[in-house]
Amino acid sequence: MSVTNLRPNIDHWSERVDMAAAFRWTARLNMHEAVANHFSLAVNEDGTQFLMNPNQAHFSRIRASDLLLLDANDPEVMSQPGAPDPTAWGLHGSIHRHCPHARCVMHVHSIFATVLASLADSTLPPIDQNTATFFNRYVIDQEFGGLAFESEGERCAEMLTDPKKKVMIMGNHGVLIIGSDPADTFNRLYYFERAAETYIRALQTGLPLRVLSDEIAEKTAQELDDYPDQAEAHLREIKAILDAEDSDYAS
After folding, report:
1. pLDDT at residue 65 in the model
2. Hey, which of 119, 121, 154, 204 has its CA 20 to 30 A from 5?
3. How many other C-beta atoms can be found within 10 angstroms of the C-beta atom of residue 207?
């Protein structure tokens, strides 16, 4: 399968609409970065065929029909018209090629997650409910090697083998979130940015932190893992707001 952005595409329409809503809301929350950053969603059983935003498109303008349909195993993708951003292909293509559990992948340089990724110690301690959500559920990449072309993408994919760890704090870079679908992944992205903001602002006080015990942090994280339907409701409400505004995201 090759790049299919030469005509409007209605395959996987509900998935496209959910992704477009996530792009629009990420821009509204100022968690995007100009025309950089990328989201992708696997649409076949083994995860190798995936939707992704087109090259150099602003998140606030992305529509469901704009999304590229790519094949991680197609060596000709980057030589065809309408090819994706090379760093997006390097990172997302590698993950969808090697990590079938990573159905949806969202990578941003959001402010607070990137500040956390820039600290010598990028650990996120459980100091409140949101930070506890991610207890023992992230990996820290400490080997930033430049832009995420293919070799860098392959290296990052190797760090995502544990299905329990759905957040990569990309040292000196940003954050990458994986999940089962756009709702699950965007909800995790949203709460990780909130958690990072809480921690960074707590550090700015210069006062001692009240850190939860490992036992309570894990209990809280598990309770939130099992909390019913929150991610689906979050995305449903985002789409309802966009629909009420006559947004063209679903076109």
Report:
1. 96
2. 154
3. 8
Contacts (Cβ under 8 Å, ≥6 apart) of 138: 124, 165, 166, 167, 168, 169
Whole-angstrom Cα distance, residue 107 to residue 118? Answer: 16
Query: What average pLDDT does the structure give for the chain?
Result: 94
> Rounded CA gap, 84 and 192, in Å?
27
Fold (CATH) for 13-107+140-192+229-244? L-fuculose-1-phosphate Aldolase (3.40.225)
210: DSSP letter: -
- The alpha carbon of 144 is separated from its chain's Cα centroid by a whole number of angstroms, namely 18
Contact 53, 68 (CB under 8 A): yes
**Dihedrals phi, psi of 32, to nearest 5 degrees:** -90, 180
Nearest residue to 77 via CA among 3, 152, 149: 3
For the chain, the structural domain boundaries read 13-107+140-192+229-244
pLDDT, tens digit (0-9, with 9 covering 90-100), for 45-101: 999 999 999 999 999 999 999 999 999 999 999 998 889 999 999 999 999 999 999
138 membership: H or E segment, kind and range: strand 138-141
Instruction: Give the helix ranges, DSSP H, for the chain.
Output: 13-28, 86-88, 94-98, 111-118, 129-132, 150-157, 182-205, 214-225, 230-244
